[in-house]
Amino acid sequence: MKVIKVLNNSLVLIEDGDGKEAIVMGKGIGFNSHVGDLIPREKVEKLFMVQENLPGAEYLNAFAAMPEEVFQMTALVMQMAQQGLSHPLRPQIFFTLTDHLMFAVERSRKGIMLQNRVLFEVQRFWPVEFNLAQQVVVQLNSQFQLDLPPEEAGNIAFHLVNGQSEHSDTSQTLLAMRMLKDIFNIIQYHAWITIDTSSLNYSRFLIHMQFFIQRMFAGQLNHSQGNALLPQIIRQHPRMHRCALVINDYVKKMLEVEMTDDELLWLIVHLVRIAEAPAD
Predict the structure, then answer these.
(1) What's the pLDDT band for 240 if we cut at 50, 70, 90?
(2) Could you report how far apart the first and last alpha carbons of the chain are, in Å?
(3) Residue 63 included in any domain
(4) Shortest CA distance to 20 belongs to which of 2, 41, 39?
(5) Cα angle vertex 198, ends 197, 199, to 5°?
(6) pTM (2 decimals)?
(7) 152 and 79 housed in the same domain
(8) Per-residue CA distances from 96 to 51, 208, 242, 280 (Å)
(9) Does residue 122 lie in a domain region?
(10) Which has the closest alpha carbon to 266: 249, 244, 236?
């Protein structure tokens, strides 16, 4: 790993053996390092690949001016996410998350509060990420003597949601949020269900719908061999079948993708479950 630029005592921009740029983190790793030096791997505590769309020197210079505590906080958040989330974060989120945390610190110190218009949706549809983000806000307030409002947890959770998908971006996350909200409204209107958001079956259904929408975005439809059960399920649960067809029409309108029979089957199964008494 060859040094390209020393950002500060703990961060160095390097080029690996494949010619790809990365930022390495380590205690004192930048001290007495110079352009062209080789960094021993045993000194590297964290490695983050540089995103191809980063705006070059301007972005790196901004990073060099940030306090080391902000980078340490980002690394802590990513460690917490690794332990608390079901899917790992993309290493590239290190840059966007660090930038956001620094912006949040600066905003708070200047007394600038931004309203989070999607706070309720983030809290509702990504509760695990939101709970983790709440812990991050507590850490930020303690580390930097701030008074960040609860809304900031929604902003951080939004980054955590984006960071778990290889193909996700802000526009896709906002669209997924809108679709989840619309689908739940469809369910309550067409299936005559009052959804118990504290139930285990709700949590299972929410996870299913999150991954379902991700598959729709990626064009990775489920084609397993469970379709023989579909006619039987339709006969047993006609109301849930009709509701599932309305959801199918909605998905087709939004994404120009139609559910397979297998996706339809599992959607009906989950609708039946959330209509039942809460699972223990």
Answers:
(1) very high
(2) 52
(3) no
(4) 2
(5) 95
(6) 0.66
(7) yes
(8) 10, 27, 42, 39
(9) yes
(10) 244
Token pair of 19, please?
Answer: 């010619």
- Its domain, for residue 220, covers 170-275
Q: How many angstroms separate the CA atoms of 174 and 115, rounded? A: 16
Q: How many domains does the chain contain in total?
A: 3
β pairing state of 46-49 and 2-8: unpaired
Residue 53 pLDDT > 60: no
Does a structural domain hold residue 56? no
How far apart are the C-alpha atoms of 181 and 162, rounded to whole Å? 18
Phi, psi angle pair for 247, to nearest 5°: -65, -40
**CA–CA distance, 152 with 134 (Å, rounded to integer):** 8
Residues 36 and 38: their CA atoms lie apart, in Å, by: 7
What is the CB-side half-sphere exposure of residue 221 using CA atoms within 13 A?
A: 15
98 touches 63 (CB < 8 A):
yes
Residue 236, both tokens: 């047993």
Contact by Cβ (8 Å): 2, 37: yes
Place of tokens 């945390």: 101
State how far the alpha carbon of 187 is from the alpha carbons of 133, 174, 205, 228, 238, in Å. 29, 20, 12, 25, 14
Q: Which residue has the higher pLDDT, 14 or 142?
A: 142
User: From the CA atom positions of the chain, what is the Rg in Å?
Assistant: 23
**3-class SS at 156?**
helix
